[in-house]
Automatic annotation (TrEMBL):
GO molecular function: G protein-coupled receptor activity
Residue stretches making up the G-protein coupled receptors family 1 profile domain: 31-289
Record-stated family: Belongs to the G-protein coupled receptor 1 family.
PANTHER family (UniProt xref): G-PROTEIN COUPLED RECEPTOR
Keywords attached to this entry: Cell membrane, G-protein coupled receptor, Membrane, Receptor, Transducer, Transmembrane, Transmembrane helix
InterPro entries assigned to the protein according to its UniProt record, in alphabetical order: GPCR_Rhodpsn, GPCR_Rhodpsn_7TM
Annotated source species: Mytilus edulis
Residues passing through the membrane, by range: 12-38, 50-68, 88-108, 129-150, 182-203, 232-253, 273-291
Gene Ontology CC entries for this record: plasma membrane
Protein name (Swiss-Prot/TrEMBL): G-protein coupled receptors family 1 profile domain-containing protein
Amino acid sequence: MNNTNNTDLHRTFLSVVFITEGIVIAPTIFGNLLLICCIKRYKALHARSYILIGSLAVSDLLFGLLFLPYDMLTVAFPIMREYKITCLLRAVLLYGLVGASNTNIFIISLERHIALTYPLWHLKLSWRWLAGSIAVAWIMPLLMAVLPVLGWNSWNVDLKCVYKWKDAISSSFLMLWSYSNVSLLVISCILFFKVVFTTFSFLNNKSPQRGQFGVQRQLSVTRRTSIEKTKVLILIVGFFVLCWGPYCLLIIVKPFIQEQSKQRKQIDMAEKYSGFLAVCNCTLNWVIYGLKNKRIRHTFKLTLCGRRSRHENGLDGISTISTKQEQFSQLSCVK
């Protein structure tokens, strides 16, 4: 009787997953593709920070293009869960793309930290450094995700993947993946808090000197720009931690709980639903950037309305002014 109830609950959960992923997949693909096109199309979005945002958008786009449709297929056709390669391929897509998103967020936090803490060095950062950072952000998580396919798995012919996807993935691999991603999340949060502290300390304590032409206006605009960027970073890091933090922590805690115990069953249930929450994260980032970043929001409007020639020169002018304001802010921090 209990097995029948558990099977019914699992099927109900899979149905909810299928419906939710079907709802999420369209805005995930559309929004991240729109963001990538805007970054590629408009010179105003060719700065380092926006290129890193574009790399994060690519990981979210691939999550919507590859993982979500594949996961929906495995729910619609349960026979796919009975084969080793299909189970392990899901692990590669899930852990590889999520790891890439996490690493890209870490690189974004690091870049913002360098911009405020070491402004002169940040101004000298080459595009080669940027390309190398993006390459590392993709290569490392993808290499880790391929390990189950290369043999680091716990595939069981009798158990298969019919009821629990994680049964095909070694618990030691899940621990390594969770520890590495939690570590990156912690470091990103530390860098993030340092960025917040540095930004608001400078904005609150820095007062313009009399007799300097244009300094008051320059600092006023810089104040708004810095606060806007800080708020966006708060939301991006905050939502990622909120969505993926519980899932990673449960995987770390679970091996220390005794099998077949009531607490273990509760953790298994919590892990299932926290993973469901984590899947929805890929559709949030482009919405946050579109709502909170004025320049990206403006390019969204231009692209969706099909108006480029009339407004792009003005947007590029804003880009030049904003870049000079950011450089002024960074140099003022050094002084």
